[in-house]
Specification:
The chain is of the alpha/beta class. The chain is built from 11 helices and 11 strands.
């Protein structure tokens, strides 16, 4: 498969000035088991990143908490200097006290330090899309988003995105700063963020589904009819579900990556999309 792979998913524009192919790569799984520490096979992790670009992927999603810090560092070690048109999105606002633990920290001082750390690890002067990873219940959302707005004004962030947000939280954030994307859990079995997806469609924001590959009975049947794997079918369904959708399936395997990208050429009928829901 050549670079035409991901281009077959079509394109989506972030913030009016960043056009990306509508099938990206989530770089969480290139860290170690449990998203902690170094990968089991660092050479394969680097091959995955390089192969993703060869397959036409030009949107990479990561976070400082993946590893922590491992995913961002591997991206820079594998891909820097970056090719023109590559968009790297990262996130701040979660910390990792220990393996298996994820704790919110939305304090402005922490977010500023997290952004500065990501800039250094990724070897960037400006991060294309910087996302608040999760609302911290101990910190006013306006304070957290306000700090990202200041970082944007300072030129350290090009665009602001949010993650794990409700419709109401998204409305509050958009009063403070333009938001270009929302990254929420969304898959065949979990449509909790359907209302957020609809807002993104209406407002021209990208909707980035995480945990996108869960399957269910209609998916299994339709996948069998197309003679493709369940994960390929669910990616194709996400792409067909909404023009705002920007799936970022992740993996630590080149072979699995190639299977995921092959989903971009799978076309589902309206009846098949409706059957899945």
């Amino acid at each position: 498969m050549n670079a035409a792979g991901a281009t077959r998913a079509g394109t989506l524009t972030l913030g009016g000035d960043l056009t990306v192919n509508r099938l990206g790569f989530g770089a969480m799984r290139i860290a170690g088991p449990g998203v902690w520490g170094e990968p089991r096979d660092s050479s394969e992790a680097r091959r995955v990143l390089r192969r993703a670009l060869e397959l036409g992927i030009n949107f990479l999603d990561t976070a400082d908490s993946y590893g922590p810090e491992v995913s961002e560092r591997l991206i820079a070690e594998s891909l820097y200097p970056y090719p023109p048109g590559l968009v790297i999105a990262t996130k701040g606002g979660l910390v990792r006290p220990a393996p298996g633990q994820w704790a919110a920290d939305g304090r402005p001082a922490h977010l500023r330090a997290a952004c500065e750390g990501s800039l250094k690890r990724l070897k960037l002067a400006r991060i294309d899309v910087y996302q608040l990873h999760r609302v911290d219940p101990a910190v006013a959302l306006e304070d957290s988003i306000g700090e990202l707005a200041r970082l944007r004004q300072e030129g350290k962030i090009r665009h602001v995105g949010v993650s794990n947000f409700s419709v109401r939280e998204l409305e509050r954030a958009r009063r403070i700063v333009p938001v270009v994307s929302v990254q929420n859990r969304y898959n065949v079995g979990d449509r909790t963020s359907e209302d957020v997806l609809r807002v993104c469609e209406h407002a021209g924001l990208a909707f980035i589904p995480w945990a996108p590959l869960a399957a269910a009975q209609p998916v299994e049947r339709i996948a069998a009819e197309h003679a493709v794997g369940l994960q390929q079918l669910t990616i194709a369904w996400l792409l067909a579900k909404s023009p705002a959708m920007l799936p970022i399936p992740g993996t630590s395997s080149v072979a699995h990556l190639e299977q995921n990208v092959a989903a971009a050429q799978l076309r589902l009928s309206a009846a098949e999309v409706a059957a899945i829901g």
